[in-house]
Design brief:
There is one protein chain. The chain has 275 residues and is of the alpha+beta class. 48% of the residues lie in helices and 18% in strands. Strands 4-3-2-1-5 form a five-stranded antiparallel β-sheet. It has a three-stranded antiparallel β-sheet with strand order 6-8-7, with helices on one face. Helix 1 packs antiparallel against helix 4 (88-104), helix 2 packs antiparallel against helix 3 (60-82) and helix 7 (193-205) packs across helix 8 (241-258). The chain is elongated and about 120 Å long.
Length: 275
């Protein structure tokens, strides 16, 4: 945006040295000294405040710079006012410039606001496995503009924070208990439920990554047309989720065969009337 030279001349025209008195200079120097001291004290207070909010660590540098620049701009305007300079045109110029910059950086500022919202609300943190609007993966980092995810197939996904902050987020990670693994297994109607549960429990007991607490659960979940569904719910560390998931699926086949449990598939039984 081009600078209005007439506005600059109008603002700084009053800085004619011949118009400056000793009293005016002394007052200006005094205000500068007080303002400088106040800025140092306020910046120390800002540093202490930011240190208490570890969740905003990624924004500490940017927030500190923003506060510092704002305080210095305020001090400069105060100094110009003490020199009896009409700062109204300068304030108007800064407002127009700020509006132009905000319009030019609208998407960036929207992403920045989304990032601050995520860091403040903490719906997830690095290391969590999340799903948001059909995108899922492990959170690698939360930046100013983008949240970076690592998908199960090794793809790096960068999601704009404006989209992430407005999305419905499902966080699969429980930092106290880890992550729950849910697996559904089907068995024939002929197999006693207790036998099926015993076969599944043997698989659960053989996987060392499964946590004893919360205790694993094996329950009948549904009666299908050709089989009974059993749901297995166990807890493990987030990093071991897929290891446990596939170990349950792979171990169930051998265990079912050992206990004589048929793993059924969709089929149709036809009974012929002998008459």
């Amino acid at each position: 945006m081009p600078v209005d030279e007439s506005t600059v001349q109008e603002v700084f025209g009053a800085l004619d040295p011949s118009k400056l008195s000793f009293e005016l200079l002394f007052r200006t120097i005094f205000i500068f000294a007080i303002g400088f001291l106040v800025i140092r004290l306020l910046m120390k207070a800002v540093d202490r405040l930011l240190d208490r909010h570890k969740d905003l660590f990624g924004l500490h540098k940017q927030l500190r710079s923003l506060v510092r620049v704002s305080l210095w701009v305020l001090l400069i305007l105060t100094l110009l006012g003490s020199l009896e300079v009409d700062i109204a045109p300068l304030i108007a110029l800064l407002s127009v410039a700020g509006l132009a910059v905000s319009l030019a950086l609208q998407n960036t500022l929207t992403n920045l606001a989304g990032g601050m919202t995520i860091l403040a609300a903490k719906p997830f943190q690095p290391g969590d496995y999340i799903q948001a609007d059909g995108i899922e993966g492990t959170v690698e980092s939360i930046g100013l503009s983008y949240t970076r995810l690592l998908s199960f197939d090794g793809k790096h996904i960068s999601v704009p924070n404006s989209q992430m902050s407005a999305a419905k987020i499902i966080n699969f990670t429980n930092h106290e208990e880890g992550r729950r693994v849910d697996v559904t297994l089907s068995a024939s109607y002929e197999a006693p439920a207790q036998t099926v549960k015993q076969a599944i429990q043997e698989v659960v007991d053989s996987i060392p990554q499964i946590k004893p607490e919360p205790a694993p659960a094996i329950r009948v979940s549904a009666y299908q047309s050709s089989a009974i569904d059993y749901v297995v719910r166990v807890w493990t560390d987030s990093d071991d989720y897929w290891t446990v998931y596939y170990a349950l699926l792979e171990g169930a086949r051998d265990s079912f065969e050992k206990y004589g449990v048929e793993m059924t598939y969709n089929h149709l039984n036809v009974h012929l009337d002998p008459r």
